[in-house]
Amino acid sequence: MLVLSRHRDESIMIGDDVVVTIVDIRGDKVRLGIDAPQDIPVHRQEVYDAIKRENAKAARLQPEETRRANPT
Q1: Rounded to whole angstroms, how far apart are CA atoms 46 and 68?
Q2: Closest to 10 measured CA to CA, from 18, 20, 1
Q3: Which DSSP string corresponds to 32-54?
Q4: What is the pLDDT of residues 37-59, one digit of tens each?
């Protein structure tokens, strides 16, 4: 893991397309601004983990499990 120190309004480049900017620092919280192309998903870790769990769960479903019990 690379650990960097930054002040407010300073940025970090990830590759050529992603810029992470320190927007605000209040106590033990840091607000980040992330500028990335639309085709690069950006999520908080807990949201990313939930998406991965749901995708894995959906991949295990059998086709008949995706149909409604009482189709109209």
Answers
A1: 30
A2: 20
A3: EEEE--TTS----HHHHHHHHHH
A4: 999 999 999 999 999 999 999 88
Domain count, the chain: 1
Report CA 31 to chain centroid distance, whole Å: 15
Per the domain annotation, does 1 fall within a domain? no
Residue 6 belongs to some domain of the structure: no
According to the model, what pLDDT value does residue 67 have?
66
Rounded to whole angstroms, the Cα distance separating 20 from 9 reads 10
> Which letter does DSSP use for residue 59 in this model?
H
Sequence-ordered list of residues with C-beta below 8 angstroms from that of 20, at least 6 positions apart, any chain: 11, 12, 13, 14, 32, 33, 34, 35
